[in-house]
Specification:
2 copies of one chain form a homodimer. The first copy, chain A, starts with 10 loop residues before the first helix and ends in a 40-residue tail after the last strand. In chain A, strands 3, 4, 5, 6, 7, 14 and 15 form a 7-stranded mixed sheet that branches. In chain A, α3 packs across α4 and α3 crosses α11. Chain A has 12 helices and 15 strands. Chain A is of the alpha/beta class. Chain A is globular and about 65 Å long. At the A-B interface, α3, β12, α9 and β13 of A face α3, β12, α9 and β13 of B.
Chain lengths: ~425, ~425
């Protein structure tokens, strides 16, 4: 990746007007350095740590593709990054974001397989929330002509994670049953769609009641996320389920393992329960480590059960499994072209609206994926502040400046 | 299963001469109760707890098949049963043994799919080491004409366990690598053969050096079981392996998980390290539970790893998964008929030689499976005792009677 961190400008100097019009277009540190808009995380903490600012535009290194970004995916994981609630968090300031879609603008040396103007989606090891990203060619995939950029940005992380968990870690086959939390979220909807590609699969999902009407067609049995899902599943299937996908962590590991049928697989792929409010995480990653129940392998032996963990980011960026992921992306694009799966986009947000978007995913208001639309202008501000109220009632460490607390109505496509 | 426990005769009354000739053929408790020879475990402990005696012959209940047994499998698990080193051990006296092959002699009511004289192999929930067993029809499978009874008795547990671990729990595919301990044992050889049915699979195996010459063709890389296998594997494959099959337990869970590549699967399927000598287990099942390292699911998440346990007996007899196992048996029999797999029989032993056979598996002297051949006469006794020396140097609680400590030469087919 191009070295960007050192070139970040003093944010106040380049802070953009929230309406996105009065850009300080020509301020450059050196004569020929081009600039781009980015979302910058200035330190771990609340929404007030996010700013839209300008940064020197990266140029592709050897083996990298430079992409003019059109749309970026926003994931629950980005909240955890903002709060510093991840293992070995990188240094701030940083540009968040792990996935984007756009158009190839340039290629580094020895970068084969793409042409300028190719429509692509890509994984990025941070720095996706920018007008331009550079990322290794192995993380870039051409997208079908009929796939929109928001769809593509909604596709990569959620569908790859869902596919690999269901078919590579577990072994989803005809007649099996799957429990997925946050069934209305990006991964949840990807899981539901992929399950529908296998005959006779039963999907149990939890979601906030207001989403049930919208997603009921995609899930066999839908429960209120505030109910005891263990009891709800057992009412319908006393034997339990074959696959449990857990993005909550904490005591849900024990519950999930308890719900498995013999030969069933529990997969931990997130720890959203560790996010309790909007400020810097009270539960650091280290604390969440101690909160979760450890499991004795002899228990798994006695019960014929499988316990797994899945982190797509670690797989890609720490463990160098880009080629495995590429194979999966190609299978998924084939399913897309057969119209068997289709990313569900919840809403599009301008870069300047990233706080509202984050608030929406934090409050679990989304059905499907939240997308940052790089070319979108912010929606005009509404009357007064009503965002920023965290679930746990925590307060922001600092007050936001001027218009930051005003509400915008999101664009729902 | 027919109720047999209550009808066990006082063992001394019917104790057979070890040479198997002077049977007290006609001693019966009631006029028309038929009798059969069985191996009886009189209490948990050393080899001296095993006796050959007579018992009332069971008759098939509804849904059961009565089998005239020709050959029985002897597994490491039978040692653990003898020592009482299993979860919820049943009451003694009991007849050990979980698998056999023979000829259908009678059918209970509503027992379909078999005819008298069918050649079959079967799982039995204890009581396999007898001249006759009755077991539910779901645990009985017809065997091919060219499969011998010893082969069939060597087939069921080891190949089903190996197959389910490789293909149902893990997801063995082309190009993967597998580590298996006791590569010369029954499961080890089944694993090696099944791996050879998938292109380009690398098998790492550990075994005692004296077995290497005999099994080197079946395993890609063979290590002395006394060496540090973690180091040996890493010398050849610094990245580790895709699948670790662990029958040792204890600190091998941590070692096994550490050896996994991302997306790799560790499976615990036994705890032979808990067997330290020939007497009643010093390590009770409860103690082994505490000895093994518990695993944090967040560690699996960080490392993209899978930890599983597999117990075929629990799957069959506690968890009612006979139909899943039946499907697997049919796939395996198809592989057998295609001559892609073939059970490896180490040696055949008369019922009266069960102690010597158990000593051999305890001392890891076997290459392939040990079989109790019900119709075999014991090999004439040799000069003096040299068995019964346990690895850990523990002594028998009691001295064996008369000829029990004399050595026999096994029949190697």
């Amino acid at each position: 990746m191009a070295n960007e961190g050192a070139e970040i400008k003093e944010e106040t100097e380049h802070m953009l007007e929230k309406n996105g019009i009065k850009e300080q277009g020509s301020v450059m540190s050196t004569g020929d350095t081009k600039e781009m808009r980015v979302v910058l995380l200035t330190g771990f903490g609340g929404l007030n740590k996010l700013r839209v600012t300008k940064k020197a535009m990266p140029e592709p290194q050897e083996g990298e593709v430079k992409i003019r970004v059109k749309a970026c995916g926003l994931n629950f994981l980005d909240l955890m990054v903002r709060q510093g609630n991840i293992d070995n968090p990188p240094k701030t300031p940083l540009v968040p974001g792990f996935e984007c879609a756009g158009i190839v603008e340039a290629l580094g040396d020895n970068t084969k397989g793409f042409e300028i103007e190719d429509r692509v989606m890509a994984f990025v090891n941070y720095s996706a929330w920018a007008e331009v990203v550079c990322t290794p060619v192995n993380y870039v995939y051409k997208i079908p002509d009929d796939m929109t950029f928001p769809e593509a940005a909604a596709f990569s992380m959620n569908f790859v994670a869902a596919y690999m968990m269901l078919f590579e870690v577990a072994n989803l086959r005809e007649g099996m049953s799957v429990l997925v939390h946050s069934a209305g979220g990006g991964v949840g909807q990807a899981v539901a769609q992929l399950c529908s590609t296998v005959p006779n699969v039963t999907v149990f999902g939890t979601a906030s009641p207001f989403k049930h009407e919208a997603i009921k067609e995609s899930v066999t049995h839908l429960f209120d996320r505030n109910l005891d899902y263990v009891q709800e599943v057992k009412k319908i299937s006393p034997e339990g389920v074959d696959i449990v996908l857990d993005c909550l962590c904490g005591d849900n590991t024990g519950k999930g393992l308890g719900l498995l049928k013999p030969l069933g697989t529990y997969i931990l792929y997130g720890s959203s329960n560790m996010v309790t409010g909007e400020t810097k995480s009270f539960f650091s990653f280290a604390k969440s480590w101690w909160q979760v129940e450890k499991v004795n392998p002899i228990k798994l032996y006695e019960e014929n059960k499988v316990m797994a963990g899945f982190s797509l980011l670690n797989l890609l960026f720490k463990q160098g499994r880009g080629s495995v992921v590429k194979t999966v992306v190609h299978k998924l694009l084939s399913l897309y072209e057969q119209k068997k799966i289709k990313p569900l986009v919840d809403s599009l947000w301008a870069l300047e609206e990233v706080k509202e978007a984050m608030q929406r995913i934090h409050d679990r208001g989304n059905i499907g994926k939240l997308i940052l639309d790089v070319e979108k202008s912010p929606t005009p501000l509404m009357a007064n502040d009503s965002t920023e109220t965290s679930e746990a009632g925590e307060e922001e460490e600092e007050q936001e400046g001027d218009s930051d607390n005003k509400e915008r109505t999101p664009f729902i496509p």
